[in-house]
Specification:
Layout: E1 20-27, E2 36-46, E3 52-62, H1 66-84
Length: about 80
């Protein structure tokens, strides 16, 4: 999961460049009304001091753009990262 190339703009999106993140992304298609049922990312983050934490972020029933959904996940990830440091 550390080598995952998809979703670099989600959990990893706002973390420092050399942060080690092993993650798995997921997303649904949009329905006829344009609603995306799910956009998510879950994984493990290794802090610079070697401590680890697990995080999962899910955006549900969203009419936002894919980029906005990814940004929501990235901001949540950064808040957790900052709190854990």
């Amino acid at each position: 999961m550390i080598d995952t190339e998809t979703g670099a703009n989600k959990l990893k999106g706002m973390l420092p460049a050399k942060t080690v993140v092993g993650h798995k992304t997921g997303s649904s298609d949009r329905n006829a009304d344009g609603m995306k049922t799910a956009d998510n990312d879950a994984g493990l983050v290794i802090l610079p001091d070697g401590r680890k934490y697990y995080i999962a972020a899910f955006v549900m029933d969203s009419y936002e753009t894919d980029e906005d959904n990814a940004n929501i996940i990235a901001r949540i990830s950064r808040m957790v990262y900052d709190a854990m440091r």
